[in-house]
Amino acid sequence: MELVVLSSELESAFADFYHDFIKHDPENADFYARGTENFADYVRQLQDEEEGINLPDGYVPCSHLWLVENAVILGAIRIRHHIENDFLSLEGGHIGYDVAPSARGRGNGKVMLKLALSKACELGIRKALITADEDNIASRKVIESNGGIFESVVMGKVFPEPIARYWVSCEL
């Protein structure tokens, strides 16, 4: 199991990942729909985001990594290089992730976040803000199992739901 950058070799695995969301978690599938329209452009867009190129207003540089095992994408994780805007500093945080619906409940989120914290450290992030919907107990356990220290629950402004905020030390 490893974190990798999305590449053309993973196009088929990405399609399977997306269809898993469509079938089992359709409300979160939209985030990945762009990759089904033109995969090469999608990969290029993610690379540009990491480099801070052509970012939409309010976006910050962001590394997109994929948890892969045996050519199967088990999850996706995003590491925002800084959180210097209102949305990220309140509710988005440094790191966001999704575990493929068929890969949930098997510790993949814990492994993915652990691997991503080392990458965050390499990016110069010493303490990462990681958030989860207050009622998403599975995600909160992933954060806590990686040393997350609960700070508070806040009401989101962009997504007006209660959000649990955690701080996690990043180490190499």
Automatic annotation (TrEMBL):
Record domain N-acetyltransferase: where: 4-172
Keyword presence, Cell inner membrane: no
Domain of life: Bacteria
GO MF annotation list: acyltransferase activity, transferring groups other than amino-acyl groups
Entries under InterPro entries matching the protein: Acyl_CoA_acyltransferase, GNAT_dom
Keywords of this entry: Transferase
UniProt cross-references to PANTHER family, sorted A to Z: ACETYLTRANSFERASE
Stated name of the protein: Acetyltransferase
